[in-house]
Design goal:
- The complex is a heteroheptamer.
- With about 160 residues, chain A is α+β, with helices and mostly antiparallel strands.
- Chain A has five helices and three strands.
- The two termini of chain A are about 25 Å apart.
- Chain D is built from five helices and two strands.
- Chain D has a two-stranded antiparallel sheet with strand order 1-2.
- In chain D, helix 1 packs antiparallel against helix 2 and helix 2 packs antiparallel against helix 4.
- Chain G contains three helices and no strands.
- Chain G is elongated.
- Classes of the chains: A alpha+beta (about 160), B mainly alpha (about 140), C mainly alpha (about 500), D mainly alpha (about 120), E mainly alpha (about 100), F mainly alpha (about 500), G mainly alpha (about 110).
- Chains B and G meet through helix 1 of B and helix 3 of G.
- The complex binds sodium ion (NA) (2 copies).
- The site of one sodium ion has 7 residues of chain F, from helix 13 and helix 18.
- One sodium ion binds next to helix 13 and helix 18 of chain F.
């Protein structure tokens, strides 16, 4: 129930940000819309600790800048690779154990891996993750640091 | 163990936001008429995403197939009915001015009603169509 | 109330359609269809009576005035076409109940009638609106419901036919919307009357002829002008009988109306015929259509398909009249809109009666039916005579004006060709007559009954109309002549 | 700007050709529908890119003489309506294809034609 | 400025389109179309700036959404040949 | 009763009779009574119109205005009166004959036969009294359609084929040429009315007149000018009363009647006489006269089907009428009108005789006719009178009409026409006289193998007498009429002269 | 101030276009689907990011800014999901093909 209220509040905030018109009619319609959406979301069974991960909110905001920095760096590296006439790549699939406990954590980790050019998550299967690596550098350095940070975000 | 955890959890997070965005587009449609259509598409898209990720069976439990059918017809009814209401109030067909004391408010309400009709129809058609397609292989 | 008639003509069916779909009961849905059809007939008669002396009714939708809002504008031309649609719609709806109950599954009936009403709504809407974009919208409403209706035919080929119709129809509609967009870009208005005023100053620019060309092709597709008719024969052959009767007698007619409206009112006859010389294209196409399609009809074994090809030929007659761009020619075209609706409506309804009883319209299956279903087959023969153009039928009136128009212009070979193709009609109608009356019944000994009374009455209603308006054509030719003069007068009256 | 306008023009023409070609040349019923949709989309782009349609007035609130009036929302409505019609056409078309697939077991035009011989 | 941006995006779109057209696998095409779509999102936004119609941004959000869901749908279709395939059995979600 | 009402009744009575026949179809005696009563009433009605006409009246009645300027209207004038009189006079006789024939031959679908027959007569009345070209065309087509089921009456493959030829030629000429001629007339003059002296004068000149004439002459396929004559021989598969209807009562008469009417009232004799480019009609019809006679002669020499020979005889006789009309001379036109009557009486007698032989002996071929005259004296006696009328010898009506035509040819100083008339008379003699000789003076052929033909499953009956009484009465009556026409040509002659503007 | 913003906008936009175009070039250059996914990621992360940043600097309208950020947020959220889904589909399909191939080889 609390989570539903939280969802409603977040959605209303989203509405206010988008709307820009703060007349009683539209504010009322916004509230009604939020109630309708929360109702449907509950019917859909998507309002839970995965669907609305309020528990990771704050830590995630700390994690995000670091992730963006990583993304920038690997972008630059990738641009270099692409523009290199020799196209120095050695693509391969690798499997690693994942020291993460929740599905949410695994998802954050998997998406972070995919977001950084050079690595793409191809599968998450319980405790292991399968990653497609473009240039045979051991992604463990990045991956290791990343998994530690995600583990922190996960907060368990 | 489900190996589509990424898609599953991410769409879980996304779905409510898509729906509220749809309604935002809908109710701000009178500033740019035609919003009802986009809203209907977006709202339906939220459902379709859900059905894609969680399977048709679960989507049907949330939204039985008769609902899109009704929506399709209901939308048209709202549209045509609004015209009759304006006429009953002494105006021309779809003359929104008569819907409120202040003509501009009248127009506002009229467009809202019409756009809502459009939303309902488009939503019904899109979801109904998805059901028709997704349900075939099974039957 | 009376001042709202132009919009109510369309709005009442429009609201009846979703109700029919929602109530989910076949009988109620039919009742709604019948009520809306009769309403439309009532309204159309009201409109015709108001525009009799050359008046024009104008109705503005919504709050916006004409250039921005949508204006419904009724004159003799479209009041007459609306009357055709509503009258045929009423008769075919009466007919539909038994016939459709036989050919369409029960669960689908509400949807069927919703589409049926929508189809009529779209056609009526096209006729009354004075806004070119609104024309497109109504066109698509009627077309989409027509695709759905055709697809409900029993034969699986109905699906493929509906699909092909959808593809070609949508291409036609897109061409039309391209043309409309170009005109809007050049003039900033979508209102027909405004367009008629604002187009002449910009007509020397290249965009307008291009827009005209797109529109002409689009209309030709929609009205099945040879060689863009390919969608029609199968669509008519495999649709449910009642649908064929409705569409054959109204849909292409309304498409012709649309074209007349654009050519004569919006662009003006001078532009369409002197500058663009559209007649140079239409005349040969019409002649080829008349001749080749009549010839093809002779070799069809499926009688519905045969009549479908005949329809393409008949559309050729109408376009021939249009290409004359003279009062007599246009009168012929407009009066044939009405007359052909009566003819084909009756013929397809008679065939529907046959299909109702023996489940086939193959010419071999119709052997000996003259004895088994005397009333049905008699109606077929009489309507067939009208198609041929035998005197005292409406077909004769049409041919009379058409040939008179040709002779006035000194188009000798055209007049001769029209007469010769009437003879081809004799041949294909007579194939059915011979099978039905002079061959023995092919089926088992199971007794074949006469078609149900509801089917017979509505069919005969149209057959008698074929003769009534063939003997006293003063009303139809009078209003058609007035419409023709109005169209040729340029602009709106 | 001039160049962009021209580019749009060519994009429209190319898309139109592409759609039309797909529509005609493909035997697969779904691909035909996609071709039709591309064809229609090209028209919407044409509408959008035509200066006079969008260039006139933006559909936002403007102040008239003391009272609030709405500006001409026409171009926007036209495109949207056309898109709605296009989507509805696609919807009907696809549902037809589904039923064709059920009836014939294929959505290839030539196979269907052979089946009905 | 935005004109250059539009041109650049268009160049990028054309390159993505090339991949979509030449394939060779269906996944290459999906990738090409998906990238084409995300670039279209940006193009719509840029055009909004160019024509001073910022409400185009709403349109680009819609487009991004459709592009995303469309990609997922196509992939699902190629995997299962059925869009309605249940990823999980009934009632197992959200325990 | 006023003339207008009588005209309407003349149309309505046969149509009402058709309904009556249809309703009494299950009771043959009642049905036949209805037919006879109706035909008698019609004869009375038509007869009572004559005095008014001879008094110079031209009663008119407009039925309805179809489109602005064009009405369905009726008007009685002398030529129409002649045609209507012939049809009304022959219908009761033919009905009487039909009863004997249809019952004697156990024909099926007799109700349909009588209904269509009545409708055909009604249509013929319409043709006769048509007040303008459109009305004429309307009833002309009705006549075609109502006689189609009669031609295909037997329902066999060969009769179907004949029906197709019949309908094909008649409809295609009428729609393809006749209607075009009407429309062209309307386009040129703005009128479709029949008027004394014609309506074309001053509107059209030169070759177009010839073309228009051709459209009408070949468009009126019922007049059977070669090459549009083929329907007539084809239609001889029908039962004999139908042949009588086609050849004598209504159909071909409607054709030649229309030709004469159009020549007189649309073109105008004086107008045509003053035009170049119309002389070909004499040659076309003259050719038909001779060619058809030669065909008839060939049929005789091959000892072929009697009705087929009679059919070609009709083709040739009809062309007399057209030829006479084409001379554009008043005397010839009167002869043409008279010949309509004379040929009707003579030819119906001949067909009755042929049907009589078919009914009594199941003989259809000329070679089977040897000695028939002794077994069937009444029949062959009537046949002889009919043949004399065809040849144009006294004491038959054909002599009168041929006489006037000959005078017309001299009046027009058209020596080719005179030649054609003389030559054809010789040819007619050449194919009729041998039959009469065979029937009366040759001995019957013995033990001939059963003849199977004409779709008939009867065997030839060698031991036969006269045909049933109704048949004998009917053919005696028509033979008597043929002779009476010779003896008292007064009324038809008066009408014929009124036609060409002479004092009635 | 405005000139500075313009300059920054130019830098960001050109930078964004650089990553975007290089990314799509990469899509063309890479030898197989999985490898193509990596440069594809560039276009959505840096490409779109810098471009939108450049646009953000050009607007004074709060509403526009919010929308631009939403657009980027949405891209950033969905791009890896789409990439992952595609990669997963490719790998699954190739494994399926491999097992099928082994199956036929063994028999
Ligand atoms: Na990556
Ligand atoms: Na002779």
């Amino acid at each position: 129930m609390l989570r539903s209220l939280g969802l409603g509040a977040i959605l209303y905030g989203f509405w206010l940000l988008l709307s820009g018109h703060y007349t009683p009619l539209l504010l009322g319609l916004g509230a009604a819309s939020c109630i309708l959406v929360v109702y449907i979301a509950r019917r859909m069974d998507v309002v839970d600790e995965e669907g609305l991960p309020l528990q990771v909110g704050a830590r995630f905001l700390v994690y995000l800048p670091w992730l963006l920095k990583e993304v920038f760096l690997s972008n630059v590296a990738m641009a270099r690779t692409v523009l290199d006439p020799r196209l120095p790549i050695r693509p391969k699939l690798q499997r690693y154990p994942l020291p993460l406990e929740t599905d949410l954590g695994r998802v954050i980790f998997g998406n972070s891996v995919t977001l950084t050019p050079g690595t793409v998550t191809t599968a998450i299967d319980g405790g292991t993750i399968e990653i497609h690596v473009l240039s045979g550098e051991d992604p463990d350095t990045t991956g290791g640091r990343m998994s530690r940070r995600v583990s922190w975000v996960e907060g368990r | 163990m489900d190996d589509r955890v990424i898609v599953r959890i991410c769409s879980k997070i996304l779905t409510p936001f898509i729906m509220i965005f749809a309604l935002y587009v809908q109710f701000h449609g009178d500033y740019s008429p035609g919003g009802g259509f986009q809203a209907g598409v977006i709202f339906a898209a939220a459902f379709i995403l859900y059905a894609l990720v969680y399977g048709l069976a679960r989507a049907l439990r949330v939204l039985p197939p008769v609902v899109p059918y009704i929506c399709g017809a209901l939308g048209l009814f709202i549209f045509a009915g609004t015209g009759f209401v304006t006429m009953a109030l002494g105006g021309n067909y779809l003359d929104y001015d008569v819907l409120a004391h202040d003509p501009s408010h009248g127009q506002h309400y009229g467009i809202l009603a019409i756009e809502f009709g459009v939303l309902v129809t488009v939503f019904g058609v899109m979801v109904g169509l998805f059901y028709a397609f997704a349900g075939r292989r099974r039957s | 109330m009376i001042e709202h008639l132009p919009v109510l003509l369309v709005a009442i069916p429009l609201i009846a359609a979703p109700i029919a779909a929602l109530l989910n009961h076949g009988g109620i849905a039919w009742g709604l269809a019948l009520a809306s059809a009769f309403w439309a007939l009532f309204a159309a008669i009201g409109l015709v009576s108001q525009v009799g002396e050359g008046q024009v009714l104008s109705y503005e939708l919504g709050g916006w005035a004409a250039p921005y809002g949508i204006e419904y504008r009724i004159d003799a031309v479209n009041a007459f076409v609306a009357l055709i649609v509503a009258a045929i719609g009423s008769v075919t709806t009466i007919y539909a109940r038994r016939s459709v109950a036989r050919e369409v599954e029960k669960e689908r009936l509400p949807l069927f009638y919703a589409a049926w009403i929508l189809s009529m709504t779209g056609l009526l809407g096209i006729t009354v609106t004075g806004d070119v974009f609104n024309v497109f919208v109504f066109l698509e409403i009627s077309s989409l419901s027509a695709y759905a209706l055709i697809a409900m035919g029993q034969d699986r080929r109905a699906l493929v036919s509906a699909y092909q119709y959808l593809i070609m129809g949508s291409v036609g509609a897109t061409f039309i919307v391209i043309g409309i967009g170009m005109m809007y870009a050049m003039t900033g208005t979508l209102n027909m009357a405004d367009l008629a005023e604002r187009l002449p100053p910009v007509m020397d620019q290249r965009t307008i002829p291009v827009a005209f060309a797109f529109l002409a092709v689009g209309f030709s597709l929609k009205l099945a002008l040879f060689p863009l008719h390919l969608w029609l024969p199968n669509a008519y052959a495999f649709a449910p009988s009642a649908v064929t009767a409705l569409l054959a007698s109204t849909a292409t007619k309304v498409a012709v109306y649309m074209m007349l409206r654009f050519f004569f009112t919006v662009f003006g006859a001078a532009f369409a015929f002197d500058q663009m010389q559209v007649d140079l294209v239409f005349l040969p196409l019409a002649l080829v259509a008349i001749f080749s399609m009549s010839l093809v009809a002779i070799f069809q074994m499926n009688v519905k398909r045969m009549l479908a090809y005949s329809s393409v030929a008949q559309i050729g007659y109408i376009i021939l009249g249009v290409s004359m761009a003279s009062v007599t020619g246009l009168t012929a075209a407009i009066v044939h809109l009405f007359n052909h609706a009566l003819i084909k409506g009756a013929l397809f309804m008679a065939l529907g009666g046959v299909f109702y009883r023996i489940g086939s319209v193959h010419i071999e299956a119709m052997r000996g039916l003259g004895r088994k279903m005397p009333w049905t087959m008699a109606s077929f023969v009489l309507a067939g005579l009208s198609l041929i153009g035998v005197p005292l039928t409406v077909g004769f009136i049409s041919k009379w004006y058409l040939i008179s128009g040709a002779l006035e212009l000194g188009w000798w070979p055209v007049a001769v060709l029209v007469l010769i193709t009437s003879l081809l009609a004799v041949v294909y109608i007579w194939r059915v007559v011979e099978a039905a009356y002079f061959k023995t019944f092919a089926g088992d000994d199971e007794p074949v009954q006469e078609a149900p009374l509801g089917l017979l009455l509505s069919t005969w209603g149209l057959v008698l109309a074929n003769f009534y308006f063939g003997i006293d054509a003063t009303f139809t030719t009078g209003i058609a002549g007035q419409a023709a003069r109005m169209l040729l007068g340029g602009g709106t009256p | 700007m001039e160049a962009l306008g021209l580019f749009n023009y060519w994009a429209v023409v190319i898309l139109m050709m592409l759609g039309f070609y797909t529509l005609i040349a493909r035997g697969n019923l779904v691909k035909k529908l996609i071709g039709l949709n591309i064809f229609q989309t090209s028209v919407f782009i044409m509408y959008i890119s035509m200066g006079k349609v969008t260039g006139g007035t933006a559909p936002i609130l403007i102040d008239g003489e003391g009272s609030v009036v709405y500006s001409n929302p026409l171009p926007h409505v036209l495109i949207l309506t056309a898109i709605v019609v296009g989507v509805a056409t696609l919807a009907v078309g696809l549902s037809l294809v589904v039923r064709i697939k059920e009836a014939y077991g294929t959505i290839e035009e030539d196979v269907i034609q052979d089946a009905d011989k | 400025m935005f004109f250059v941006a539009a041109l650049g995006v268009l160049v990028s779109m054309s390159l993505a389109l090339v991949r979509a057209v030449i394939g060779p696998t269906v996944y290459d095409r999906v990738l090409g179309v998906n990238i084409f779509g995300t670039k279209m999102v940006l193009l719509i936004g840029v055009l909004g700036f160019l024509t001073e119609r910022p409400e185009f941004l709403d349109l680009s959000l819609v487009y991004a959404l459709i592009n995303f869901i469309g990609t997922l749908a196509v992939l699902k279709f190629f995997e299962f040949r059925d869009l309605g395939h249940g990823a999980e059995p009934l009632g197992s979600g959200g325990e | 009763m006023s003339a207008e009402i009588l005209m309407l009744l003349a149309l309505a009575v046969p149509m009402l009779g058709a309904f009556g026949i249809a309703f009494t179809g299950d009771y043959p005696n009642l049905r036949e009574t209805v037919t006879l009563v109706t035909s008698g009433v019609l004869l009375l009605i038509v007869g009572s119109l004559v005095p008014e006409l001879l008094g110079g009246g031209r009663p008119q009645v407009t039925l309805i205005e179809m489109v602005p300027g064009i009405s369905l209207m009726l008007e009685v004038e002398p030529l129409g009166m002649i045609f209507a009189g012939v049809a009304a006079l022959l219908w009761p006789i033919n009905s009487l004959y039909s009863i004997g024939y249809m019952r004697g031959n156990h024909e099926k679908k007799q109700t349909r036969f009588y209904v269509c027959f009545a409708v055909a007569i009604g249509s013929a009345m319409g043709v006769a009294f048509a007040g303008n070209l459109v009305t004429l065309f309307v009833f002309y087509e009705m006549l075609t359609l109502s006689t189609y089921p009669l031609v295909t009456h037997k329902g066999t493959e060969s009769s179907m084929k004949a029906g197709r030829v019949y309908l094909g030629i008649l409809i295609s000429t009428s729609i393809g040429l006749f209607l075009l001629g009407i429309l062209l007339t309307h386009a040129l003059t703005g009128s479709v009315d029949f008027e004394q002296g014609g309506i074309l004068e001053g509107h059209v000149e030169g070759p177009l007149v010839g073309l228009l004439l051709a459209l009408f002459m070949f468009g009126i396929g019922k007049a059977a000018i070669m090459p549009v004559h083929r329907w007539l021989p084809a239609a001889m598969v029908a039962p004999t009363p139908v042949s009588a209807l086609l050849h004598a009562v209504a159909v071909v008469k409607a054709g030649v009647f229309s030709v004469v009417k159009i020549v007189v009232y649309v073109f105008g004799i004086d107008f045509l006489a003053g035009q170049g480019g119309t002389g070909w009609l004499v040659y076309a019809s003259g050719f038909t006269v001779l060619a058809a006679s030669i065909v008839a002669l060939r049929i005789l020499m091959q000892q072929g089907n009697l009705k087929r020979m009679l059919a070609y005889s009709t083709v040739s006789q009809l062309s007399y009428v057209v030829l006479a009309a084409a001379l554009f001379a008043p005397m010839a036109a009167a002869g043409a009108a008279l010949h309509i009557v004379a040929h009707a009486f003579g030819k119906i007698t001949l067909f009755f005789a042929a049907g009589s032989i078919h009914t009594a002996a199941h003989k259809d071929d000329i070679r089977q006719l040897r000695g028939v005259g002794r077994r069937m004296p009444w029949t062959m006696g009537a046949f002889t009178i009919g043949a004399l009328s065809m040849i144009g010898l006294p004491p038959a009506g054909g002599f009168i009409s041929k006489w006037y035509m000959m005078l017309g040819a001299f009046q027009a100083e058209h020596m080719v026409a005179v030649g054609i008339l003389v030559a054809s008379t010789l040819l007619n003699g050449a194919y009729f006289v041998p039959i009469i000789y065979m029937a009366f003076f040759q001995r019957e052929e013995a033990a001939e193998p059963a003849y199977v033909g004409g779709g008939d499953d009867h065997h030839v009956d060698h031991d036969h007498g006269e045909a049933p009484l109704p048949i004998v009465i009917a053919l005696t009556a028509t033979a008597a009429l043929t002779v009476l026409l010779f003896l008292f040509p007064g009324v038809p002659l008066a009408l014929a002269q009124a036609l060409v503007g002479g004092a009635p | 101030m405005e000139a500075v913003l313009d300059l920054l906008s130019w830098i960001f936009i050109v930078g964004g276009l650089f990553f975007m175009i290089v990314g799509t070039i990469g899509i063309l250059r890479m030898p197989d689907v999985l490898s193509r996914l990596h440069p594809a990621g560039m276009t959505d992360t840096m490409g779109a990011g810098l471009l939108i940043l450049g646009m953000c600097l050009q607007t004074t309208d709060w509403m526009v800014l919010v929308r631009l950020l939403f657009v980027y947020g949405f891209l950033l959220f969905t791009a890896p999901i789409a990439s992952h889904a595609l990669a997963r589909a490719v790998v699954t399909a190739s494994r399926r093909a491999d097992t099928a191939g082994e199956g036929t080889g063994a028999s």
